[in-house]
Amino acid sequence: MPQMAPLNWLTLLVFFSTIFIILNSFNFYTFLYQQKPDKLMPKPSTKVNWKCL
């Protein structure tokens, strides 16, 4: 029976850290937050009178 290649702790740390970062970035970019329409606030428009400046 073939034996597995010996893995040290540093290789496993790099392997699992890479998987962790890939999965978290995938989750970050695929998550869409749906904001409720009643929570949207219109941006107040401020008019500037350029003659007074």
TrEMBL record:
Subunit structure: F-type ATPases have 2 components, CF(1) - the catalytic core - and CF(0) - the membrane proton channel.
Subcellular location: Mitochondrion membrane
Similarity field: Belongs to the ATPase protein 8 family.
Biological processes, Gene Ontology terms: proton motive force-driven ATP synthesis
Protein name: ATP synthase complex subunit 8
Keywords: CF(0), Hydrogen ion transport, Ion transport, Membrane, Mitochondrion, Transmembrane, Transmembrane helix, Transport
Principal location: mitochondrion
Membrane-topology annotation of the record: Single-pass membrane protein
Membrane-spanning intervals of the chain: 12-33
Keyword Ubl conjugation: no
GO MF term list: proton transmembrane transporter activity
Record's GO cellular component terms: mitochondrial membrane; proton-transporting ATP synthase complex
Taxonomic lineage from the root: Eukaryota, Metazoa, Ecdysozoa, Arthropoda, Hexapoda
Signal sequence bounds: none
